[in-house]
Model the fold of this input.
Amino acid sequence: MITFERTGKRFGSLDAVKDFSITIKDGEILGLLGPNGAGKTTLMLMMGTVYRPTSGTITVNGFDVVKHPNEVRRLIGIAFQDPRVDGILSGFEVLNWHLKMTTTLDKDERRRRVEEALKALDLWDSRKKRTWLMSGGMKKKVEDAKILVQRPSIAVFDEPTAFLDVPSRLLVWKMIRQLRDEGSTVIVATNMMDEAERLSERVAIVNKGKLVASETPEQLKGTVKGGEVLELTLDDGSEFRPDMLTKFPEIHDVKKQDNKILVFLNSGTLLLPKIVDTLNTQGFKIESVKLKEVSLEDVFLTYTGQRLE
Amino acid sequence: MSSSPTLGNGLSKTAIAEKSPTHLIVQMALRDVSVLFRTPWIIITRALAFIIQLFVFAFLISGLIHIPGLNFFEYYAVGSVVATIASISFVIGYDIFEEAEEGVLDYLLTLPIPRREFIIGRALGGAMRAIIYTIPMFLIVAFVWGFTQPLSILTALLALFLLAFGVTGMSITVAVSVKSANRFDVVLALLELAVSRGSTALYPITFMPFYVSLFAPFSPVSFAADTARMSLVGFTLDLPALAGLVAFVVIFLGLGAAFYFRRLEGGIYG
Ligand SMILES: Nc1ncnc2c1ncn2[C@@H]1O[C@H](COP(=O)(O)OP(=O)(O)O)[C@@H](O)[C@H]1O
Ligand SMILES: [Mg+2]
Done:
């Protein structure tokens, strides 16, 4: 179990993480979802004993990260956002060395694990290539593979599929799930909605260093009132004001982004003609209309007021 | 059914590994040593450069310098092995500084190795690397001047190793305490200049400018050079110089590193 208690990290005058409290249960996959600069990496590096929190505490299986860093390091493995691999080493050597440092496996077992992971990630043919000659995607897979072969009790992946092509993303997701099935607690930091939704049992939304919400993706969607979203695109939305629509009791919230209007409501199909009517009378020209179920994207927007790109 | 964890089929998690400190130190050290063997041509070209330097430059100079009772060519030959080992030992600081800039240091710091073992391992690795690197040069010198006494060779190697170990400790301390890249380069270059040029490695005290001769006797490079020469040429043990070397190592691995632990533990970025 991992507990962040009012954890904070200041860099100079910037609060990269502020008053952050969460408990991560054993064996769960937690998605840390937030835009760039939200503080996800800082959170992971504090947990991994690289940065020291400037306020609050973090305990990992009861060990305080500041007072017992050596115990914590034996529990955690972090796959970094930017690959941290010795350029002079090949993919095989990087993984083998990582296992030497983090496990007591003998040579044959190390070899077996590394081979298995490299094959699964489609890296076996280039196992002897020095990593500085690898493409960004290949290097990223080697970085992820470090933790996949290590199988630590707590596995952290910082944006594990950034810069990966679609087949590779699916492979990495599958292997991360496997890791959890084998008993690891998994934390995945991501700024990609689909990754958070498809991988995690619980999503913690982080924005500007703060925890905004943490629930299962389904529960999060449930917290958005109405359950449906109507997305309208106007040819010119500059004159639009949300209060033009909030007079309808079925409409719970209205958000405007340039020419795009998001209406959170229920009974959308029944209400749609009235909304269109209202907007037309006000002189707006509607270019397109889309009615959909609430997605995690909408959740993110209602909690943070911004969209993830 | 076996009760031990199955590893091949990917169905079990690795037990928490608590490895012995010595094992971790050795692994860290080997990492730095192995870099050398990935680029063996560096050792070869450096050894060639050394031979040229020694047999052209030093031979010419030795024709100009005549000191009664001193074979300057031999003096210079042994001294330049010592000076080389000192400057190679400084390299580890550059390595670590670069790792910090590239972020590899962050990775190394998440590994289950206590900071103390980490630093000792890196200093040891840097020292072993410097020794391996200079062995061809040492052999050339030993062959040309006929140093074959095993005990005196061992003593000389011990002095070289202590010097290398202390210098790597010093270099690492500087690497983590200076944050700006420019300042780091300047500090290390000055330090290298001070300990290696301001020493008796290449010239006897009598040939030095007055102000250099004041501190040259206290340079760890002088301790190592004097110990090596006394044991190889004079078959005697320079105990005070050896003691000085040990003190040098202890100071920089102990004091310097203690300050360094605190810094690392807080995160190198504050
Ligand atoms: N070492 C550092 N020094 C100063 N500021 C930092 C450092 N690391 C991160 N930051 C700042 O802290 C904030 C959070 O960064 P980060 O944790 O990397 O966010 P994320 O991983 O969610 O993109 C950003 O504003 C970033 O610029
Ligand atoms: Mg990040």
The interface with chain A takes residues 7-8, 10-19, 24, 27, 31, 35, 38, 102-104, 106-107, 109-114, 265-267, 269-270 of chain B (CB under 8 Å). The CA atoms of residues 82 and 151 of chain B lie 18 Å apart.
